Amino acid sequence: MNQYQRLIDNLTKLNLNNMAASIADYRQQIDEFATMSFLDNQENIIFIGSPGVGKTHLSIGIGIEACRQGVRTLFINCHELILRLKSAQEKQHLERVMRRYERYDLLIIDELGYLPISANESKLLFQLINGRYERKSTIITTNVPLSSWGTVLNSTATAEAILDRLVYYHSHVIKLKGKLYSIGQFLNRPNHTFLNRHKTTI
């Protein structure tokens, strides 16, 4: 069982009360995310923070709630996404694959910057973000400050273009601190709900 499936299987044990106080400070804003109102305005969400602060937990929780509300949603690791785009480019059907990813109402890209991204790969990522610009919402989790994206993406120009489409006009940037309790700490707790809404697992 991979880490994402374990997170999904245990999300019924997780809510903001189980998180560090610094994360709970965002309770009202994240509760608002759970209403999916950000989708109506094609707004994006960026979760920034060190490993273990809860970025992936929160993004998966929002994704599950989106699915419950009938929103077409995809959760994918950034490295896997780039590999798929590169493969499509090599097989000369990049345009078709791009259209498929652009159709998702909510695209969640996990761990941008965790692994190195080449200049060519960053251009593929830009093409995708640009295709969704002002049409669909995207959630990104990253441990890289926005000011360092040029280094991670191996291109300052591409990083600025991505940030222009993703962050500057239609976004919520959440900088998480502190430490998320481990899943194991929840197993013997009452079956709380995520954001007081999520009551099922996928």
TrEMBL record:
Domain AAA+ ATPase per the UniProt entry, residue ranges: 41-172
Top-level taxon in the UniProt lineage: Bacteria
Matches recorded under InterPro entries: AAA+_ATPase, IstB, IstB_ATP-bd, P-loop_NTPase
Biological process annotations from GO: DNA replication
Any Pfam family the entry gives: IstB_IS21
GO MF annotation list: ATP binding
PANTHER family: ATP-BINDING PROTEIN RV3427C IN INSERTION SEQUENCE-RELATED, CHROMOSOMAL REPLICATION INITIATOR PROTEIN DNAA
Record family assignment: Belongs to the IS21/IS1162 putative ATP-binding protein family.
Protein name: IstB like protein, possible transposase
Organism: Ligilactobacillus ruminis (strain ATCC 27782 / RF3)
